[in-house]
Amino acid sequence: MDIDIIRRGQWRARHRNGFGPAPVPWEENWAHHSVTLAPNIEWIDVDGDGVEDDEAAAMRQLEQIGQDRFAGGISYTAAIPPSGRIYEGHGVDRQGAHTGGRNDIARAIVFIGNYDVHPLTEAQIDSAARLLAYWYLRGWCRWPAFDGGHQQAPNQIATACPGRYVLAAIPEINRRAALYAAGQNPKEDELDSRERNALLGLEDVFKPGGVLRIVLEEILKRLIGIQFAVGTAEMATATKDAPAGIHIGTLVADIWRRGVAEVDEGELADAMKARGMGTVDPAAVKAAMAEVLTRGTDALSDNHQNQEAPTA
Length: 312
Hints:
The chain has a 6-stranded mixed sheet with strand order 1-4-3-5-2-6. It has helices at 8-11, 53-70, 122-137, 164-181, 193-201, 203-206, 211-223, 232-239, 242-258, 265-274, 282-295, and strands spanning 5-6, 28-33, 78-80, 86-88, 106-111, 148-149. 42% of the residues lie in helices and 7% in strands. The relative contact order is 0.14. By secondary structure, the chain is of the alpha/beta class. It has 11 helices and 6 strands.
C-alpha cells in the first residue's frame, strides 16, 4: 500500500526533527487537533513548489508552536488539513511532544483546525485511515488504529483535544484503517435488500442492546488488536439465558475463527432456533453477518450509508 506524504523538506521545516530516536514499532496512536486556523481547501501554489501555500504555512505555524513550547520542532508525527493531504511532522522514528508521558511509545496524527467547532472532512477521515494502515503494513506500529483521542490517553492534563468531532470520527477511521490494512475497500456496496430484510427480521437481537449486537460490537472493539475473546460465559451473561447464550457464543466464536464462509447454515439455523427465530432465512442472516463483521455494526442500521472521507 502506497500513499502520498508531503515531506518536511517540501513544506520547508526550519527546526529540529523531534527530540531524538524513539522505538519502532511503537505501541500507541493518538488523535489530536491543532485548534489553529484550518487552511482553505482551494489549491493555491503561488511559488510553484508543488505544495499548497496555505497548508505549508499552517505546517510551519505548527512547527513554530512546538519549537516555542518544547524546543523540538513540530510536535506531531503527521498532520492532515481539510484537503486530506498528509504532511510529515517529525520522523516516524523520532520522539515528538504530543501526548504527555507517552511520546516515546506513541505517535500522533494532528488534524489541522478546531474540531470542537467543525466536523472532519471526508478526505481527512479517509486519509487518517490510510495513514494508520500504511504505518501498520510497514511494521511501524502494532495495529492500524487510533487508541483514542488525546484526552483519552492515560494520565493527561485536562484537555478538550482532539475535539468532539474527531472523537466521534475515530470509530469510522479505525474501521476503515482495519479494512485498508487487510487489503479491502471500506467503501464497498451497502447491504442488499435480502440481507437488510434478514437483519430487520432479527431486529430484537440486532437492535442496540440486543444480544448479537452486543457480541458483534465486542468483537469489533477487540478486532483492532488482532485479538478475539468474547467467551461463551460472557455471551450467557449478555443473553441472561445460559444454554442459548453458550450456543450462540460458540457459533459467533466459530464465525470469527473460521470465517463466515465456513459456517454451516444448519449451525446458524440451530442457534437462531434456540432464540425463537426459526422462521428467518439462515442464508440471508449469514450474508448479513459477513457484512457486519467486515464493516462494523453501522451496517445494522436501516438508515446506514457509507461515509465519504492537537494540541498536545
